[in-house]
């Protein structure tokens, strides 16, 4: 039974389309061209449809009677990746590249969570990153679409807490030896710089005595918001 069905299927005639011969006015049944080709010339009473292959950059996906192949979509943009290439039988299909998602007919970069915010839901090709504010006792340095809020590290002996962690930076720990050698200066200045003017006074109130002990420079300059701030030992 299977062999009979297969034989019948294989013996089915190619699909045709009605076509009126402009010279004679006769109604003809022209065979459709296979996918990947086009009808270069319609059939006549004595000749079948003349099919020609699609040239590079063009395609036909199904049997057709088109006199021209369809142009493939333009090459994918820099923020896209090619999911299906242009072939004689398939159009080019582009999708958003990693780090981008589809919105308003274009690929948009995933939102990077700001300092103090972590990624509650990572972005995908179809949705943006969802950021959430870090809860008390957790932090995220931000500027990332993947970083999540993590717990403050805490300090262990012989180190002690020089600066309390916030939602955007971890606890800063140091031992007496590190403070006397100035090993934590750069780390502390980095934190002050990221927080800006509003936090500078609090940092000095909290660390003033030890900061003067391990400072090795008379002037410390920080750039924040295009302004230059100087710290000077008294």
Structure notes:
Its main location: secreted. Keywords: Apoptosis, Disulfide bond, Glycoprotein, Repeat, Secreted, Signal. It comes from Astyanax mexicanus. InterPro entries: TNFR/NGFR_Cys_rich_reg, TNFRSF_decoy_receptor. The longest helix has 18 residues. The protein is rod-shaped, with a radius of gyration of 35 Å. A two-stranded antiparallel sheet has the order 1-2. It has a two-stranded antiparallel sheet with strand order 3-4. It has a two-stranded antiparallel sheet with strand order 5-6. It folds into three domains: 55 residues, Tumor Necrosis Factor Receptor, subunit A, domain 2 (Ribbon), CATH 2.10.50.10; 54 residues, Tumor Necrosis Factor Receptor, subunit A, domain 2 (Ribbon); 83 residues, no CATH class. With 234 residues, it is an alpha+beta fold. The chain is 19% helix and 31% strand.
Give the radius of gyration: 35 Å
* Order of neighbouring strands in the sheet with most strands: 1-2
Which series of helices and strands comes N to C? HEEEEEEEEEEEEEEEEHHHEE
Based on secondary structure, the structural category is alpha+beta
Major sheet: size, sense and barrel closure? 2 strands, antiparallel
What is the count of DSSP helices, taking H or I runs of 4+ residues?
4
Shape: rod-shaped
The share of residues in helices is 10-25%
Short description:
It is built from 4 helices and 18 strands. The chain has helices spanning 2-11, 176-181, 185-195, 197-214; strands at 16-20, 27-31, 37-41, 50-53, 58-59, 70-71, 80-84, 93-96, 100-103, 106-109, 117-121, 130-133, 138-139, 150-151, 160-163, 172-174, 219-224, 227-232. The strands form 9 sheets. Strands 1-2 form a two-stranded antiparallel sheet.
